[in-house]
Amino acid sequence: xxxNQPTDDLDRRLDAALGALPRERAAADxxxxxxxxxxPPSSSARRWYLAAAAAVLLLAATFGVREWQHRRQIDAAVQxxxxxxxxxxxxxxxxxxxxxxxxxxxxxxxxxxDENVELVVDLARxxxxxxxxxxxxxxxxxxxxxxxxxxVPRQAxxxxxxRPSGTL
Length: 168
Known about the structure:
two-stranded antiparallel sheet, 4 helices, mainly alpha, about 170 residues
């Protein structure tokens, strides 16, 4: 005895009942209607699909362009930073060179001149002469003038004389 015997019996009875029914014929346009349903969507639906695809492509292109521009800005900023660092190192080296030159150089002030004479004051020599002058006068202290240069008395500048214009 098979386990599927009731099902098999039911299948046989169902087959017999269906076989007793009159046979129906398909309509003449049945095949055309089925194939019509399988045809691609109408032109209006196709337009919606194309519009949606175009919108997706437009969004992707927009985001792609923005990302590309952002990358270019980052690359440009990195390049500018590298240029600034290089320039900083050049300026720092030049500044160090100038400091070394200033340490070796004699402190002088150019006062001007003409084709025959140039007036240059050696500030180190002037300071030593002033110290000697103050020591010989009995003062060890150099006065500090914190006022504007026009307020400094003329006798405070070593070697300066007051002469009326036009006199020798």
